[in-house]
Specification:
Helices cover 34% and strands 22% of the residues. The protein has helices spanning 23-38, 62-80, 93-98, 101-105, 121-129, 169-173, 181-193, 219-230, 249-257, 274-279, 286-299, 318-331, 358-381, and strands spanning 14-19, 42-44, 52-57, 88-92, 111-114, 151-155, 157-158, 177-178, 198-202, 236-239, 264-266, 304-311, 335-340, 387-398, 401-408, 419-421, 431-440, 443-451. Residues 1-8 and 138-143 have low confidence and may be disordered. With 453 residues, the protein is of the alpha/beta class.
Amino acid sequence: MDNPSSMSTTADASCLFVTLGCAKNEVDTDRMRALLLGDGLSEAHEVDAADVIIVNTCSFLASATSESIETTLELAEEVAHGVRSRPIIMCGCVPSRYGDELAHELPEVAAFVRADEEDGIVDVVRRVLGSGGAPAARPAGRMLRTIEGASAYVKISDGCDRFCTFCAIPHIRGRYSSRPASEILDEVRGLVAGGVREIVLIGQDTGVWGHDLEGAPCLADLLRMVAEVVRPCRGWVRVLYLQPEGMTDELIATIRDVDEVLPYIDIPIQHCSERVLGRMGRSGSAAELRTLFARLREEIPGMVLRTTGMAGFPGETDDEADELADFLAEQEFDYLSVFAYSPEEGTRAAAMDGQVDERTKLERTQRLVDVSEQTGFSATARHVGERTKVIIDGVEEGEWGRELVGHAWFQAPDCDGAVHLEQGEASVGDIVTCDLVDSFCYELSGVMVSKEG
């Protein structure tokens, strides 16, 4: 087998990227990709063509950790059966969570890079390839990106200060840290210049963005600044992962009044029982949530509402499970994600009494899934007959010919279904007007009317 250390420069090498987990990990991978491409590496799309493999891992749930490790071992086995060795670098949440334990447990991995060390990926790749050279310059301010699609996720913060009893994120990603507005805006400008038409702002808790920055700007301030950047290209701004406490008067007014900011609100509530929320380390009650959602619907007519519900939290009674299911059905959310509680190592909830058995947990989860499909499919069908704008995400050649695939303002990319247009001429990134004529589950079909110039 060839020795990768014989390489003298990363310009001779190619890198395969494997990303697991959420959109925030996709952003982190894209940053590492940009840094490495800037150092002369090329991107490979299969193991045989790669000189180094980077696996960006997820450890939010035990199942995600297992998937990350299994994927890494599968790649190591594929490498072992190849004609030459290829070092594997494990990045992200698993190294952040388990640190020094991993080198002993995973000797197949050449290097481990915590989430907060990923800016140094060029030096790590140089080291494992034996290419040497001066330490790579660290990026100053603007984040390089390699996005080629119509939509792009932009991280506005990292970490979390909430310490919900079921969640390991603060232990993995650390305390909440806002990215400065100037850095975010630089990134957005670069994305828009590259053809991106929709900016999706994400973080663990986007509603508190800015509280730790000088002058304590707020999310509403940031949304207005980003809106100004996308306005010339008639682009969209979407924000995800707002907590109920983050819905301030100013934020509500900004979502309502700034045309570029989509009236799409994502508020993961997890539960509605005051007692269960208290055990989760969260505040609120069914009454308070009803008041909030009624206010949002009144002040932002026609808005779309997404939430998340968790089934089987320790101590949840049958009556509390019924309360959550009834609440979710009553509120008729446009989109509802459902999770079964998972006891995560190092969290307070994992040590609580009243752990719900797996069978009961799955039964409660399925009930919530049934609610989500009933309300979600109906919400999607209500858009039939509307004329709306759609961003084109791709062009597919199917059994029945060429089809444009995109998403409307009320569909978050990669989350909420798509709009399928069988006729019309458009390219990725174009914004078109179409008439919606039919629906199936979360999918919509439409007829293209016009394309923006």
